[in-house]
Specification:
Elements: E1 20-22, E2 25-27, H1 56-67, H2 95-108, E3 113-120, E4 126-129, E5 135-136, H3 141-155, H4 162-173, H5 177-186, H6 189-200, E6 217-218, H7 220-231, H8 241-251, E7 267-278, E8 283-294, E9 297-308, H9 311-329
Antiparallel strand pairs: 1-2, 3-4, 3-9, 5-6, 7-8, 8-9
Amino acid sequence: MARHRIAPNPVTALLVTGWVAAGGLLLTTGGDAPVPARAAVAPVPPGSGAAPLPGLRAVGAVRAGEAGRGSGADGKPSPKPDKPSAEPDKPAVDPDEALATSLEPVVKSTSASLSVAVLDTEDGDTASYGSGKTYDTASIVKVDILVALLLQAQDQDRHLTAEEKDYATSMIRLSDNASADALWIAIGGSSGLDEANRRLGLKATTAGVNGHWGLTQTTAADQLVLLSAVFGDDSESDLSEASQTFIRGLMGTVSTDQDWGVSAAGTLTGLKNGWLPRTATGLWDINSIGRVTVDGHGYLLTVLSRGSASKEAGVAMVERASKAAVRALSGQA
């Protein structure tokens, strides 16, 4: 299978409901809405085919060769027949094409727009589908907010305060919006997020304005870069080992009622979801990012979508797409 590789990139968010009026639309982010940031928010506490035995195949081959060989006029064994030529290599399969094929039943079953990006962390293979499209982040941006906060703390050579840790814990594990508001202010709002994303290499992500962090625009490819910063080798990430450990710990222990999305594709090691109902259309944006393990391989997965008829339909679609992505990259599609 042909391999696309994603270069190591310094890169590194959802569930309390809240409503917000933005651009004439009533929105919710992550089942939770991007409410405008507030100056003061009370801290929230943390929440069989057996392999042949060595030598057996070799012995059998010798005996079969001897039995099939006659003797020449000089009494010596005739030469061995030539071995059959090796089976020709199978044509290479482009991973993006494999992903598109694997996703075809999912895409045909919905009118929603879908974008997927996946990375095998063991060998660096990657594949994407519709990765150039932009979507509202909803609450998956909370991972980005926390990454920005940690980068700023590293630059200041300090640890997070107890209050910042409490906000971060509630923001990631519970997808608490008030905590996201507080940390949005702490990082400097949209300018702080944009600065962190330029540093990390998220080239197509633009922070939401006027406190509406859930309306940040992003692509599946950019979210894969962010996940690589969180789950990749710390020697190749702007995030320190301590910062990575902190975020991984939170993403690996999200509230059980939020354990859906990319986690359906394997064993969960990190997750953040977002869901956003649009009142103008009655349709839903459903997003999921994270890391899973399957058959000894780690996979970073991002699935972004908009236009699902309901939250349930969107979640089901995202989960089917996540499974299809892993099958495609593992060659099982």
